[in-house]
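Example (one chain per record):
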Amino acid sequence: MLTHPITVTFDVFGLPDDVPKLAEKRAVSAMKGMFLDETARSAMDQSAIIYEFHTLQTPALPTELAFGISTCYPGRVGGEYFMTKGHYHEVFGCAEVYICRQGRGVILMETPDGQWSAPVLAPGQAVYVPGGWAHRSVNIGKEPFVTCFVFRADAGHDYRTIEQNGFRKLVAERDGAMAIIDNPRWRHL
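Predicted structure:
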């Protein structure tokens, strides 16, 4: 737990070793049901890492900020690009900021009432994810898509809603180009 100011230098591989952090990796096996082509996902090496994140451990209080680095690796499952699971925040109105450090990707966002957005980020660009918007990172390039993120430390992560309902839209390769397509398995909240 941090109780004093710190300065960190972000590199593309995570937070420095000398700060308390939570590190998590998500392999193909942890993404069951997240991709449209479950047959293609199940045929892949289940230990292959799709994404990982490193979060500075701060107290889960509304007066604190959590921040860290997320890396989504290049690849596809069927025609769909590698992506994070995506989430709403448990404290529903909490926003989040993503800043692209490396690679090229999409921050796919949606609201329960049907709004959606899918900005493409390149290094140096940032996106503000408003409170109440589900969001996921999607790597549409050939190198790791690395973002820094910041959100209210007590916001929490609601992965379950996305696991059960999916996103309205998917990011896939169609005819050699990135395309945003409807998700035929999406279920309304």
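Caption: The two ends are 36 Å apart (CA to CA).
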